[in-house]
């Protein structure tokens, strides 16, 4: 915890769990054993010791969203995200400037003061025990041997109201001087010693210090301490019989008026009149729980504890509220946990006109600007909110969704691709092409990268429009990966395109008929479970047109190369789907090819095709780093070439069905 907001997130998260545990414990008060009643507090301890909001999760209530909304409402800032680095307070190096900084400083001072008070009290008690004199050690050893318990040195100290164990590493049994302590009290304290209950007392005291200003957690700390004493009573009663149990109750009753204030690092059978009265009632109802109840207790604890400790993911099911502060808070705290989810969220933001979707995958540095746009959007001061997209973008064919072309890693924790939408209408002042197979597309190059625990999307350029083929893949009007090499009068080229998509289709209909419907809901944790790949192999004649008849035949053999640590390999890596293309042969009779009427006789199409990959195959798909090619001209070996990969934004030549570029 490094500021007021991270402390608020931590303590509110724990408060929700505390309230639920108090309610559940009340329900099971007489049904489950004291072991369960104390042990279930371990769930609250885990929640207190784990950073709240870790991994984009929340417990019971979406506290991160409410804390962010409160922070934005009070400060007017949207470009920060509250994070709990550690569950303990960490001092700020910068001097306080805001009211929140001063309040956090006050919290630090209170936690330090309470911890100092506990430590000083314990140090004084240890000094007092050192002045005590050894006593009743024989009685202590006799009780320990009778019940098979560990023993520790015993000292008698003047003025003590009751016995207690002090210390964790060098424990001492402190006994009142001048009186003979009952063996049942010694048994009680030796059971504290056996089960290291002093250590639990220190943990409770530490958590009190961390959340000293939270009265609900103070109440839980008191209840946990009382449950620890009730558990020790249960253990004592399990070792006693008949009249001895009634005597133990009378001993506790004699302690009801004692004013002993427990010090951290100690244990004591006396914990206040009201608590002792409740413990005596429990003694009257004492019973041995059957062995099967232990399994029931464990199951109840797991069912209750696992969801509270693990928490839940924040999903993109937005609250129906008319508040930009709350929507922006929900967006910032509903993180995109995968790069695929970030790309999908950005695309859905464009499609569904959702500024809050955009905020979910936008860098924190852009959140203030997005919030300003959100206010204008909410107050209807402008029409379609479009993030600087041209007006014609609003004609997107949502039924086909989006396509992400040429997705590739660019360094550590960063990916780039080209987002493509199909338009119903052409750009403004542009005539529709008469070819039915052509459509207008809008393209934008995007980059997804890791920002802390969030994946964010950063546009690399403004959108532009291009007229291209209607096909989902194999559209070489869209930029493609190009492997190219030059030899003599020929340029050899292999073009690759990939199209990645997150499954966004749902079934709509009734029991008799249903159809897939595209959903524009963001999938922030999505994965690219489908990849469509298309390739084309070309040769381009770049020599003297008058000498082209010197070439009658061209033949190539190409093999993908994957550059691994051991050097270039002639085979696909394990799990790669491109292995189908190893060692392919393609050839073309040039005299026959050039004799047919063509728009461009220089472009020689050798072969093309496509593949589709789904599920684990899509995840394993990998493009070659290069291609090795053997070139044969007129039936004779001409050269061995290496075709290296690059991405061209505007191809120098296009296959049939290509497109014209517009609006660059």
What's the SSE blueprint?
Elements: H1 4-27, H2 34-39, H3 41-49, E1 57-58, H4 63-75, H5 99-130, E2 133-134, H6 137-147, E3 154-157, E4 164-166, E5 172-176, H7 183-194, H8 197-210, H9 215-239, H10 243-254, E6 266-268, H11 273-284, H12 291-310, E7 312-313, H13 324-333, H14 339-352, H15 355-360, H16 367-378, E8 402-409, E9 414-422, E10 438-451, E11 454-459, E12 464-469, E13 480-487, E14 490-501, E15 505-509, E16 514-518, E17 530-541, E18 553-564, E19 567-569, E20 584-589, H17 590-595, E21 603-614, H18 616-620, E22 626-633, E23 636-648, E24 661-662
Parallel strand pairs: 3-5
Antiparallel strand pairs: 1-7, 2-3, 4-5, 4-6, 8-9, 8-14, 9-10, 10-11, 10-12, 12-24, 13-14, 13-23, 14-17, 15-16, 17-21, 18-19, 18-20, 18-22, 22-23
Helix pairs in contact: 1-3, 1-4, 3-12, 4-13, 5-8, 6-7, 7-9, 8-9, 9-11, 10-11
Molecular structure report:
- The chain has 18 helices and 24 strands.
- The protein is an alpha+beta fold and 664 residues long.
């Amino acid at each position: 915890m490094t500021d007021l907001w991270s402390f608020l997130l931590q303590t509110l998260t724990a408060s929700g769990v505390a309230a639920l545990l108090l309610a559940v414990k009340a329900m099971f008060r007489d049904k489950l054993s004291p072991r369960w009643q104390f042990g279930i507090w371990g769930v609250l301890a885990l929640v207190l010791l784990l950073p709240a909001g870790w991994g984009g999760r929340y417990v019971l209530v979406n506290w991160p969203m409410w804390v962010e909304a409160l922070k934005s409402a009070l400060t007017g800032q949207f470009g920060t995200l509250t994070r709990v680095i550690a569950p303990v307070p960490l001092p700020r190096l910068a001097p306080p400037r805001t009211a929140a900084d001063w309040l956090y400083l006050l919290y630090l001072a209170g936690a330090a003061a309470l911890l100092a008070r506990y430590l000083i009290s314990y140090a004084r008690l240890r000094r007092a025990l050192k002045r005590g004199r050894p006593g009743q050690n024989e009685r202590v050893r006799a009780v320990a041997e009778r019940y098979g318990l560990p023993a520790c040195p015993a000292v008698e100290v003047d003025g003590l109201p009751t016995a207690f164990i002090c210390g964790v590493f060098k424990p001492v049994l402190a006994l009142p001087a001048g009186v003979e302590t009952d063996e049942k009290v010694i048994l009680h304290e030796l059971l504290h010693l056996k089960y290291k209950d002093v250590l639990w007392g220190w943990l409770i005291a530490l958590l009190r210090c961390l959340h000293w200003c939270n009265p609900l957690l103070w109440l839980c700390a008191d209840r946990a301490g009382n449950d620890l004493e009730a558990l020790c009573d249960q253990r004592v009663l399990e070792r006693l019989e008949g009249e001895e149990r009634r005597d133990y109750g009378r001993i506790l009753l004699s302690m009801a008026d004692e004013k002993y204030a427990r010090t951290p690092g100690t244990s004591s059978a006396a914990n206040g009149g009201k608590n002792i009265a409740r413990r005596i009632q429990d003694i009257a109802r004492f019973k041995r729980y059957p062995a099967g109840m232990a399994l029931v207790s464990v199951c109840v604890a797991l069912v209750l504890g696992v969801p509270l400790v693990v928490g839940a993911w924040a999903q993109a099911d937005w609250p129906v509220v008319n508040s930009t502060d709350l929507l922006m808070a929900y967006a910032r705290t509903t993180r995109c946990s995968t790069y695929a989810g970030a790309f999908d969220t950005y695309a859905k933001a464009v499609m569904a006109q959702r500024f809050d979707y955009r905020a979910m995958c936008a860098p924190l540095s852009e959140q203030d600007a997005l919030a300003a746009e959100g206010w204008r959007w909410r107050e209807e001061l402008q029409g379609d909110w479009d993030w600087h997209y041209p007006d014609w973008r609003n004609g997107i064919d949502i039924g086909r969704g989006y396509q992400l072309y040429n997705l590739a890693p660019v360094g550590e924790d960063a990916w780039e691709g080209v987002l493509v939408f199909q338009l119903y209408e052409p750009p403004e002042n542009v005539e529709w092409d008469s070819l039915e197979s052509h459509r207008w597309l809008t393209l934008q190059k995007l980059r997804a990268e890791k920002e802390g625990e969030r994946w964010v999307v950063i546009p690399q350029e403004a959108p532009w429009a291009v007229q291209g083929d209607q096909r989902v893949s194999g559209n070489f009007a869209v930029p493609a990966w190009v492997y190219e090499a030059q030899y003599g009068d020929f340029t050899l080229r292999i073009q690759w395109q990939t199209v990645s998509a997150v499954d966004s289709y749902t079934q709509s209909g009734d029991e008799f008929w249903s159809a897939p419907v595209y959903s524009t809901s963001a999938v922030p944790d999505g994965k690219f479970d489908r990849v469509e790949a298309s390739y084309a192999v070309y040769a381009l004649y770049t020599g003297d047109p008058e000498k082209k008849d010197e070439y009658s035949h061209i033949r190539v053999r190409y093999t993908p190369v994957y550059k691994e640590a051991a050097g270039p390999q002639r085979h696909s890596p394990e799990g790669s789907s491109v292995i189908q293309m190893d060692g392919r042969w393609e050839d073309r009779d040039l005299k026959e090819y050039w004799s047919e009427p063509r728009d461009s006789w220089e472009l020689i199409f050798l072969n093309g095709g496509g593949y589709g990959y789904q599920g684990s195959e899509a995840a394993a798909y990998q493009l070659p780093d290069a291609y090795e090619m053997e070139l044969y001209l007129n039936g004779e070996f001409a050269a061995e070439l290496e075709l290296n990969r690059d991405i061209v934004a505007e191809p120098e030549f296009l296959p049939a069905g290509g497109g014209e570029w517009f609006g660059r």
